[in-house]
Structure formats: structure tokens, C-alpha cells
């Protein structure tokens, strides 16, 4: 499932994931109904514009792993919030052309075939460039969880 209020992002994701069966929603209400009605291998949720954190809570309640995808909410605080609230990944939209890799990591981790936060090791240098070296030190609980699961 993909939830994003930007039509161009939605189309790009559908093209990149053409090998997958995808339900999509451009607003909170539609996404909420789909998440409560259907079972998904993963939900790709935009943070801004569609109440992504509320959708994350619904997905988590329904046992659906969620990958948070963001451009406008790309910040250390939102990273920490997403992971603390149960997101399985936090991916910047500028890296969405690699979404298949991150989703494969997430799905393999769900089966126990991969470390849960492999996506983070792939994006660690990107986050350090965006947020500054040592940025994760301010978020000890999140850092400890990431290091325990991927390190």
C-alpha cells in the first residue's frame, strides 16, 4: 500500500514498484479505510499532508509494517519520532528511486532473513550529510535501538 498526496510521487512509486500489487490512497480517510480493511505486506506512508503518523498508528495496530517516506518532514526529530512510534524505515523522498531495495530489506527482515535496520546502514552517510555528524547522539534511545538491531 502507498499513501501520498502528491500525484507525481504516487506515479513514480507505482512505476518503480510495477512488479507489486499496490493499493493507493491520496488522503487520510481513504488510507484509513484500506488499512483497517485489508492486510498488506508493507505500507509506504508519506508523513506530511496525509497525517502519516496517525496512519502509522493504524498500520501498527493492524500488524502492517510501515515505511515512512518524506521530503518536507526530513529532520532528526521526525526520524526519531517515526522510529520511536514503530516505523520500520524512514526514507527521504530524494532516495525513493531505490525504494525497491529498502522494501526488499524490510520484507527480508520481517522473515528473519535480514537485519531489521539494514536500510539505515545504507542511508547512514546520507543522514550524516543532511543532519550533521553525530546527530544521532541527541536521540540515545533511537540510536541504541538502531545499533542493537543493525550493528
TrEMBL record:
SUPFAM superfamilies: CheY-like
Alphabetical list of CDD domains matching this protein: REC (cd00156)
Record domain Response regulatory: where: 1-108
Record keywords: Phosphoprotein
SMART domains: REC (SM00448)
Any one GO BP annotation for this protein: phosphorelay signal transduction system
Keyword Transmembrane helix belongs to the record: no
PANTHER family from the UniProt entry: RESPONSE REGULATORY DOMAIN-CONTAINING PROTEIN, STRESS RESPONSE REGULATOR PROTEIN 1
The name this protein goes by in its record: Response regulatory domain-containing protein
Originating organism: marine sediment metagenome
Amino acid at each position: 500500500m502507498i499513501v501520498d498526496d502528491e500525484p507525481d510521487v504516487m506515479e513514480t512509486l507505482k512505476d518503480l514498484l510495477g512488479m507489486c500489487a499496490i493499493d493507493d490512497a491520496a488522503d487520510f480517510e481513504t488510507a484509513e479505510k484500506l488499512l483497517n480493511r485489508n492486510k498488506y505486506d508493507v505500507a509506504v506512508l508519506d508523513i506530511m499532508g496525509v497525517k502519516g503518523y496517525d496512519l502509522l498508528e493504524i498500520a501498527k495496530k493492524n500488524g502492517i509494517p510501515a515505511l515512512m517516506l518524506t521530503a518536507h518532514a526530513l529532520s532528526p526529530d521526525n526520524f526519531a519520532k517515526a522510529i520511536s512510534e514503530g516505523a520500520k524505515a524512514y526514507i527521504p523522498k530524494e532516495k525513493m528511486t531505490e525504494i525497491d531495495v529498502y522494501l526488499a530489506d524490510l520484507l527480508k527482515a520481517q522473515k528473519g532473513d535480514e537485519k531489521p535496520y539494514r536500510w539505515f546502514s545504507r542511508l547512514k552517510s546520507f543522514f550524516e550529510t543532511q543532519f550533521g555528524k553525530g546527530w544521532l547522539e541527541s536521540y540515545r534511545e533511537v540510536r541504541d535501538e538502531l545499533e542493537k538491531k543493525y550493528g
